[in-house]
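User: Structure please.
Assistant: Input sequence and predicted structure:
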Amino acid sequence: MILVKCFRHTRILFGPFNSFSQRRWKKPVISAQTRLETRTRDLKLDKLMTHIHKLKIILNIHQLMSQRKRGPFVSVQLMSRWRNIVGLNVGMGAFLHKYPHVFELFRHPLRRNLCCKITRRMRDLIEEEEKIVKDYEPDMVQRIKKLLMMSKNGTLHVHALRLIRRELGLPEDFRDSILRKYSKDFRLVDLETVELVNRGESLAEAEVEKWREKEYIDKWLSEFETSYAFPINFPAGFKIERGYGEKLKNWQRLPYLKPYKREEVLRVRACGGIERYEKRAVGIIHELLSLTVEKMLEVERLAHFRKDFAIVVNVRELLLKHPGIFYICTKGSSHTVFLREAYSKGCLIMPNPIYVVRRKMLDLILLGCRNTRSLEYRKEIQEERNDLVFKINGGGRRDGDWVIPILDSYDQNVLENPGEINNYNQPFDGCESDSESSQSVCSEDESS
């Protein structure tokens, strides 16, 4: 009896009749989130995206500064309110001190508060980019026409184009300077919809077709192998599992409806299967990335083209299924997709003029606190002396002309002691003292 009572109060930890010891095997879930976490990272593209994110913040700050009508400079106290607007996670003052080749800090001669303005070198690069965008206006027209030709009904939302305006290299007023100007090619149906008027069949060729033709001629491959293939470029360290090569080979041979062909999309999905439908979506996204300036685009902004391009599949999961064609970078405030074939060691293989100017902007950012003594203080101060506080629009004498002698003395002091213009913060002063201290301070700033 005592043994029976002991067995009643004792829990059986194992055995065939114990439900706790029999656990069902669960199949691991493969989703977009798991693919994103376990993907092979490309360190070159991740580092590039980190610098591009800083450039976007600087351009947003410049845009806010250019909207001010009181002059080419803004007080740092006012700029500190823009921290959440531009997406900074550090203080505005610390961020401005990191890049003396982009931002020039000085004391106001009258109010004695710390002010900031964009350097001449950075402004020249911004103006150069705007000039190149105006010169390449016919090329922009062809890009918009290609996007409209890929759409299901030959229409696109203007808001979607506005979201990727910088990626396409379009000017800010592209609605008036391009869509309204070229009325033979485009027609504005309403305020937010543009329609293609003249369909140029000579443009109905995808960028990947040039690669296919080159592979067919140079490598003597059969047409069956190259007609529907895509260039594959896996990142370093990518592990090819057993059977993956055979699946990839069959997928490369799978025919699909090409982006510029005008046929019923739903019929293709019903008759050809989901694999052909997904491959058509891969071809459309590949062509869209090929039309951008830097061959990259934010994943969230691709969702605005899903309805017009008849893409019903999950875009993020589709991109992660093909790591040899696309790469999703999670650096920055959003996820960005890169076209892998267009990049080599973090640089664009076939650069364009707009990309070259933007790389020069990145070079100014990468300089950090180095070579600050080579900044041309004399030329910038002499050219912008009269615009520092007051602007003289016409002839005659104004009430603010008595400020000019004060500014002259201020310019003379700066020209004699150029190192004192930024001597308001100890870390930034250390960047100008010598080369060894500049490297240590820059490394500390980059780590923070």
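The mean pLDDT is 79.
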